[in-house]
Amino acid sequence: MFNRYFYNEGLRKLTIGFGTIFNNVQVKKMSSAGDSTIQSVRVPLAYGPKEKFLVRLDQQANLDSREFAVVLPRMSFEITGINYDATRKLTRVQKYKTVKTGSNSILNINYTPVPYNINYNLNVFTATAENGLQIVEQILPFFQPDYTITLNVLPDMNIKRDVPIILNNVTYEDTYNGDFTTRRSVIYTLSFTAKTYLYGPASTQKVIRTVQSDIYTDVDLTNKAREERITVVPNPTSADADDDFGFTTTIEFFDNSKNYNPSTDTDE
């Protein structure tokens, strides 16, 4: 079971896709009259745990310093849980097939994927309440309560899948540390669940070109009293709306186990 290495990058592609949703959030500082933009900042986004950024907040005494200006506002996201979803379970024996690139006689095969729910947290760090409201308001309207992204999960098999990302809840922290001259840090935490599928290792098999079935007059095969042979040869390239999807069926009749009766019925 585990003696074969494979890596479809399913979780990696999903995590990149999740982060891409929030990589163009901006914060603008308006003039006192509110009719012009004084400054526009694209909010940096990075993968990392919330605690990492909280430590940096605690180590920076003055939020107005030049060094900290490049940190806030800022967003981070991380995976917080991976759970099997039995409600979306599919049959195990179903196969996905596609012709292997560069060959017309070999198929790429992969079995039904396994449903998993991937939990993410998106953390928003700002130095003012106004910046936090700007960021959150640019995100919330797109989740009702889900937003769907499309992932190219298995390029070799041309399999693309729509993954809904559900917004579960939003929590808010407004912390004051130090004296009254020390500015506060505003933290929003948005929890999401991505309903995705994970694929197992791919395999290959040859294309079936001919199917042959022999029909006998008796269940006792020692006498081999073969009566009929049915041979089916697929030819999808010649298929049209008036035939049987391009399958050529040949039926051969035998008068006994050894003598061949040339009575042949061919259906193309």
What does this structure look like?
The structure is a single chain. By secondary structure, the chain is mostly beta strands. The chain has 2 domains: 10-204, Myoviridae tail sheath stabiliser (STM4215-like, 2-Layer Sandwich); 208-267, no CATH class. Helices cover 14% and strands 46% of the residues. The protein contains 4 helices and 15 strands. It has helices spanning 10-21, 50-59, 66-69, 129-139, and strands at 26-30, 37-42, 45-47, 74-84, 95-99, 106-111, 114-126, 146-154, 159-175, 185-198, 203-206, 211-216, 226-234, 247-254, 260-267. The strands form 4 sheets. The chain has a 6-stranded mixed beta sheet. The longest helix has 12 residues, at 10-21. The radius of gyration is 31 Å and the shape is elongated. The relative contact order is 0.14.
